[in-house]
Amino acid sequence: VRNSLISGNETIKMALTIAVGGRVWRKFFKTFPFRSNSALKRFPTCRANGRLYSTSSDVVLVRKDEESGIATVRMNNPPVNSLNPTLMVALRSCFEELEKDKTCRALILTSQKPKVFSAGLDILQLYQKSPDHVAQFWEKVQDMWLALYGSRLITMAAINGHCPAAGCLLGLACDYRIMAEGNFRIGLNETQLDLVAPFWLRQTMIDVIGYRQAEMALMIGALYPSDKALQLGLVDKLAPIEDVQTVAEEEVKNWLKIPDQARAITKMASRKPLLDELRRRKQEDIQTFRDETTRESVQKSIQQYLEKLKAKK
Ligand SMILES: CC/C=C\C/C=C\C/C=C\CCC/C=C/C(=O)SCCNC(=O)CCNC(=O)[C@H](O)C(C)(C)COP(=O)(O)OP(=O)(O)OC[C@H]1O[C@@H](n2cnc3c(N)ncnc32)[C@H](O)[C@@H]1OP(=O)(O)O
């Protein structure tokens, strides 16, 4: 059904795009506009010593290999890369900057701190906060996801540790996932916090692991060990934790053999309907999240979840 949402016009545009050679990228961007963000300007670009992009807070570290065009984006928000507004804005800015860099062909997303890729959304940002705060927070989640999921680049998640909830959301937004072997978990455990995955996150889970498995995983808020995740297709490859980055680079090099434009157009053809749907329903999605999250019973569940996290020690 989603594929059929791409109209005949768009298919013709895509074919023309391929046919016109030199002007291909201009046409491509017209067909699939990537949004830019004025917030980008707040993050200076640094090109010294191979360190290409640097955010003002260094919560995202980026290195680009000029020869291959591969950028490695490391989340650096200790202790667990929880996605707070600073990290999400920095990630979005970074994805958009790389998108605009014509010499960049691939992006590897990983964690600066092995053992935790990302603990998901910063739960403290959802607890006892005003509805406006929660709404603004959710818009940052949407924008970060739109930038990554809608990227023309080869996007590879090098999941070097635990990857629950919105950590998994980031992984699912990539084209390929390599995860560390061992006792690390991945999944969408939102229901355990009394939260419900939004339609666009649910859809990406369905797209990656299939309807039945996604339905079950989402209902029970399952977190899978990496071997089970591989079996389900939630990740594509496993590697020893110390090799995850190298294996990701090797995999990217294989993908780089495919001509960029055909790969990117094919990717966009399958992702555009969902991207468009979220863009169209953005405000509705924000309102739902705001209303659900600030509900008293959900706040109680979040409080209990936070207590459980603290009690773990
Ligand atoms: C119809 C409906 C339509 C619309 C939609 C409506 C609603 C949508 C709703 C939801 C969709 C949201 C999608 C995403 C949601 C989320 O991401 S919620 C976050 C879920 N995350 C988790 O459950 C992970 C929790 N963390 C852990 O399990 C562990 O921390 C870890 C396995 C990741 C790492 O373990 P350790 O290395 O042992 O580290 P610690 O547990 O000791 O943690 C260190 C420190 O960090 C704090 N912390 C951990 N995770 C978070 C977090 N996510 N946010 C904030 N803080 C976190 C932890 O409490 C420790 O703090 P201190 O005790 O040191 O102060």
Please tell me about this protein's structure.
The structure is a single chain. By secondary structure, the protein is an alpha/beta fold. The chain is 49% helix and 14% strand. A six-stranded mixed β-sheet has the order 1-2-3-5-7-10, with helices on both faces. Strands 4-6-8-9 form a four-stranded mixed β-sheet. Mean pLDDT is 87; it is low at 1-52. The chain binds ligand LKXGUNVN. Residues 79-80, 82, 116, 119-124, 162, 164-166, 189-190, 193, 195-198, 288-289, 292, 309-310, 312 line the site of ligand LKXGUNVN.
The 3D shape can be described as: globular
What percent of residues adopt helix (DSSP H or I)? 40-55%
Q: Span between N and C termini?
A: 47 Å
Order of strands across the main sheet: 1-2-3-5-7-10
Ranges with pLDDT <50 over ≥5 residues?
A: 1-52
Mean pLDDT reading: 87
Number of helices: 12
Given helix and strand content, the structural type is alpha/beta
Distinct bound molecules: ligand LKXGUNVN
Q: How many strand segments?
A: 10
β-strand amount: 5-15%
State the gist of this model.
The protein is an alpha/beta fold and 313 residues long. The chain has helices spanning 8-19, 24-31, 85-100, 131-149, 166-173, 199-209, 211-220, 226-232, 244-255, 260-280, 282-293, 296-311; strands spanning 60-65, 70-75, 106-111, 115-116, 154-159, 161-164, 176-180, 185-187, 224-225, 237-239.
